[in-house]
Structure formats: structure tokens, C-alpha cells
Design brief:
The protein has twelve helices and 14 strands. With about 375 residues, it is of the alpha+beta class.
């Protein structure tokens, strides 16, 4: 592999700038080759920062510096794969706007995961990134699909502005991934709550399966919140379709992430839109009716809406004011119905010692540092 030509390949430069970049890289090619063959991410990151600073001192634009350093990062991963006999095949590297990295970082606040995302996108493993969104949701327990459908039909009779679309039903398998020390799930950030890395498999039929990669950061609840904000669960998330699931899973294992939990459910859902007269604006929302694969857990509906104030109105219009509101996630659901021992997880945590005991015999600690290779 000609490292210099690979970095410069199809780089959008005018002639003078191209000569400046080429001259700089030729002068520093030994240093760049040196960091590319480092196996430690910490040493590589430190060396890459030195290259970045030198590029800036060479009066290159910030955008050009980010483009070059991102290419060096991708090359580092590819070379590591080759050293580990990981079959990269005929990898086609595409241009990825560095803004994607910053968008992902703003969600997960994690440099290794953000870098890994950029690499996946660069080699066509991930598709177009969905717009980052702030997700507001709450669950109404013991609420069936039939109840929701009847409630929507009754609402429609009273409100001609209501539009209802019933989405395709599917079986969902969610797999959560984390460091061996549960860094994302257990190491709480100062101003935010937990983070998660999820791979979702949606099965509409044996020949119609989708894979989605989601990064999510949950918000802490604030003091003196209104009824609406107290009741709903708020998080920022960003997701992308997985175009090459086999490569994606191999890369997850290579990077040091490991599967922590699995949950399975059948989902039927409605997308709704209506004009809320009290709020004087149009509102869009999603009603997901989920049935977990555990017989002791009844069907429930999860309401998702970007509009905090509209959530309470939606509950009232559905006639579900007497339903039990629940804001915790899947683990909370299993605990609620006292079947947490049946929750499919790969570890146990000792809350006294902070030890993480994995099924494969590994023992780690939630206070230890990350061991991700990216």
C-alpha cells in the first residue's frame, strides 16, 4: 500500500494546495508511517494529534486537516485488521463529512465510538445517518393493540384533523453492546445520564430484515419539572442502517465491544398527526405497542413525541388517563413484573464492590478504564 497516494487519492485540491500538501506529507511520511503501525490506540491518538498540529502550522484549512487526519485514522484501522488477519476484502473508502463525527460525538460524548462510526461510514458498512433527534417517550402499561386501535378510531370520529397510519408489524431483537467494564451503562457523565450502543434487528418476514445501529444518551431528570417532563423519558439518539451486518458484527468484536443484553419483542405501531387546538400547532407522534417474549409481561404502548406538552393531551384524547405511566426501560419492565432473573444478560454486577462478573468467567470493575481498541 502506497500510504502517501492513498491519503491523497481523489482529495479535492487545486494545484498549488495539492503541491503544498504533498510536500508536507513527503517530509513527514516516516512519522505518519510510524503512527500507522502502532497497535495502541492511546499512542496512535497522541501521534495523530501531533500530525494534526503540524498540518495546521502548515497553514492548511481546518476542513482539509480534518479530512487528512480522518483518512489516516481509517488507514490505521485497515492496517490493524490486516495484522489481525481480518479480511477487509476490496474495501472502497468514501468521503465522509467530518461533521458526522462531531454529530455522533455530541450524542455519545465518546471519542472511540465516534471514530468507529466514522470508519464504518467510510467503508460502506453504515448507510445514511438519520437526523439526530431528542426523543421523548413514556409507556402506558397493560394497554393492548386492540385498545389502542379502538381509542384511535373513537378519536378520529371527533377530530377530522387526526391522521392515522398503521405501520408494518415486525419482530424486534435488540442487542446492547458495551465495554467489558460497562463504561457506557455504568459510568455516569457529570451532566448526563447513561449511554447505550444498540443493534436492532427488525424482522418483517424471513426475506425482509433490517439492521439498525443506534447511539443514545439519556437525560437526567431535572428538579421542579412539570407533570409532562417528570413522566416522560428523554434522550438524544442517532441511528443508521447497517448495510453489511456480517462485517459490522466482526468489527464490533474486534473493537473490544461485547454484547451485554438482548431483548425480544413483537411490535405493532401507529404514526399519528393532528392539530392540537389547545397548543395551536400540529403534532406528530408514534404509538408503539410492544409484547415482550415473556408471558408474564403484558402488552403495553409506548408514546413517542418530540412535543413535551402534547404527550399529556394525547393520553387524554385516547382516554388512557387511568393507565399506569411507566418511564423506565426494559430492565425496569422485567423488575416491575418480578421476572428480572429471566432477563437475557451476559453479566452480573455486584453493587457493593462494583465488580462485573461475565458469563465467560471474566471479572472486571465499573470503575476501570476503557479497553476499546478504537
Amino acid at each position: 500500500m502506497d500510504i502517501l497516494e492513498t491519503i491523497l487519492w481523489d482529495l479535492k485540491l487545486d494545484n498549488k494546495l495539492s503541491d503544498d500538501v504533498r510536500n508536507f506529507l513527503e517530509c513527514h511520511i516516516e512519522a505518519i508511517e510510524g503512527i500507522l503501525f502502532l497497535e495502541s490506540i492511546s499512542y496512535f491518538t497522541s501521534g495523530l494529534e501531533t500530525v494534526r498540529q503540524n498540518l495546521l502550522w502548515a497553514n492548511l484549512s481546518g476542513a482539509m486537516v480534518e479530512e487528512i487526519t480522518s483518512r489516516v485514522s481509517v488507514l490505521w484501522v485497515l492496517l490493524n485488521w490486516e495484522r489481525l488477519s481480518f479480511n477487509t476484502g476490496d474495501v472502497e473508502i468514501i468521503e465522509v463529512d467530518i461533521q458526522h463525527y462531531h454529530d455522533i460525538y455530541n450524542i455519545c460524548l465518546d471519542q472511540p465510538l465516534s471514530t468507529l462510526f466514522l470508519i464504518w461510514k467510510s467503508i460502506w458498512v453504515l448507510g445514511d445517518v438519520e437526523v439526530a433527534e431528542e426523543e421523548n417517550e413514556l409507556k402506558l402499561l397493560e394497554t393492548s393493540y386492540e385498545e389502542c386501535k379502538e381509542a384511535l378510531d373513537n378519536w378520529k370520529k371527533k377530530d377530522v384533523s387526526l391522521e392515522i397510519i398503521e405501520n408494518r408489524a415486525c419482530n424486534i431483537v435488540d442487542e446492547l453492546y458495551d465495554d467489558i467494564n460497562l463504561r457506557l451503562d455504568r459510568q455516569v457523565l457529570s451532566n448526563w445520564w447513561k449511554r447505550s450502543c444498540r443493534i436492532r434487528k427488525k424482522v418483517y418476514s424471513p426475506n425482509d430484515i433490517e439492521y439498525w445501529y443506534t447511539l443514545k444518551r439519556k437525560h437526567k431528570k431535572e428538579k421542579n419539572e412539570s407533570w409532562v417532563t417528570k413522566k416522560r423519558r428523554k434522550s438524544d439518539e442517532k441511528e443508521s442502517p447497517i448495510l453489511k451486518p456480517d462485517i459490522f458484527y466482526d468489527m464490533l468484536e474486534w473493537s473490544g465491544l461485547r454484547k451485554t443484553r438482548t431483548k425480544r419483542k413483537h411490535r405493532r405501531s401507529f404514526s399519528i398527526s393532528y392539530f392540537d387546538k389547545s397548543l395551536r400547532r400540529h403534532v406528530n407522534a408514534q404509538l408503539d405497542i410492544d409484547k415482550y417474549d415473556h408471558e408474564e409481561i403484558p402488552e403495553f404502548v409506548e408514546i413517542e413525541c418530540h412535543d413535551d406538552e402534547a404527550i399529556k393531551n394525547i393520553i387524554e384524547k385516547l382516554g388512557f388517563e387511568d393507565k399506569e405511566v411507566f418511564t423506565k426501560g426494559s430492565r425496569g419492565i422485567y423488575r416491575k413484573y418480578e421476572v428480572y432473573d429471566d432477563y437475557d444478560r451476559e453479566y452480573e454486577v455486584d453493587d457493593n464492590t462494583w465488580e462485573v462478573r461475565w458469563k465467560d468467567g471474566n471479572i472486571w470493575n465499573t470503575h476501570q478504564n476503557s479497553i476499546l481498541k478504537i
